[in-house]
UniProtKB/TrEMBL annotation:
<dbReference type="GO" id="GO:0035435">
    <property type="term" value="P:phosphate ion transmembrane transport"/>
</dbReference>
<dbReference type="GO" id="GO:0005315">
    <property type="term" value="F:phosphate transmembrane transporter activity"/>
</dbReference>
<dbReference type="InterPro" id="IPR027417">
    <property type="entry name" value="P-loop_NTPase"/>
</dbReference>
<dbReference type="InterPro" id="IPR003439">
    <property type="entry name" value="ABC_transporter-like_ATP-bd"/>
</dbReference>
<dbReference type="InterPro" id="IPR003593">
    <property type="entry name" value="AAA+_ATPase"/>
</dbReference>
<keyword id="KW-0592">Phosphate transport</keyword>
<keyword id="KW-1003">Cell membrane</keyword>
<dbReference type="InterPro" id="IPR017871">
    <property type="entry name" value="ABC_transporter-like_CS"/>
</dbReference>
<comment type="function">
    <text>Part of the ABC transporter complex PstSACB involved in phosphate import. Responsible for energy coupling to the transport system.</text>
</comment>
<keyword id="KW-0472">Membrane</keyword>
<feature type="domain" description="ABC transporter">
    <location>
        <begin position="18"/>
        <end position="260"/>
    </location>
</feature>
<dbReference type="InterPro" id="IPR005670">
    <property type="entry name" value="PstB-like"/>
</dbReference>
<keyword id="KW-0378">Hydrolase</keyword>
<keyword id="KW-0813">Transport</keyword>
<keyword id="KW-0067">ATP-binding</keyword>
<dbReference type="GO" id="GO:0005886">
    <property type="term" value="C:plasma membrane"/>
</dbReference>
<dbReference type="Pfam" id="PF00005">
    <property type="entry name" value="ABC_tran"/>
</dbReference>
Amino acid sequence: MFDTDNAKNTMTQTDIKFSAKNVQVFYGENHAIKDVNVELEDKTVTAFIGPSGCGKSTFLRCLNRMNDTIDICKVKGDILLDGEDIYDKRVDPVQLRAKVGMVFQKPNPFPKSIYDNVAYGPRIHGLARSKAELDEIVEKSLRGAAIWNEVKDRLDAPGTGLSGGQQQRLCIARAIATKPEVLLMDEPCSALDPIATAQVEELIDDLRKDFSVVIVTHSMQQAARVSQKTAFFHLGNLVEFGETPQIFTNPEDERTESYITGRIG
Ligand SMILES: Nc1ncnc2c1ncn2[C@@H]1O[C@H](COP(=O)(O)OP(=O)(O)OP(=O)(O)O)[C@@H](O)[C@H]1O
């Protein structure tokens, strides 16, 4: 009985969620991502690390087509989500972004109530058939983002009135309310104090039970704490990708070693 369950768990955990093949990104003449090939696993936290300007955010934004919003940006190659090409003409980027949610560096709640911040996505995607169902999604998302107890008595208060750390958890609740399969996080803790950072890191570990999480971080300590896989980028190249403990203790490439020991960056 237990063996079968374990076998199932192991299989689920190693499913490939994203598969990137020969991905190149250009901003006009600037070749920002150079021939990246990588497979990102489901129910896994993957950290993107590397010096400033190496392309971490650019590659992250390829995964939910946020780069589509930048006119001069051109993406080449293939990115498959569960085997389907996300750049196929038939894919609606709005639907894709409901599946592949994003949390940004600076908490950016809408100028609406706490409730409406979370209810916004489910409303536009028609995920609730009644007010009761919507209430349930809002509560579940706020619980999932570990902020329910702090806001349950003031759901009508403005989201912008919360502390920075609470706002970021509200944004995470908003992102998970559309039941995404993947959560992209671009330096989600850079505007937070150490206590709020610890809360968000704990949350990331919880989220991995339900989602794939990809996080861009400048903090190697954070990458080591929260991720199982790490990708090291340098000058637009994906230099090394592997198990986080291996990348931090026994990197194969000299450039990775220089970065983690503080010699470049
Ligand atoms: N919107 C944009 N328009 C033009 N060029 C851009 C844009 N965004 C990024 N770039 C360029 O693409 C390259 C990679 O930038 P990117 O922001 O992806 O790197 P990063 O590793 O995330 O950097 P950081 O750690 O500083 O956030 C850089 O040369 C940058 O100048």
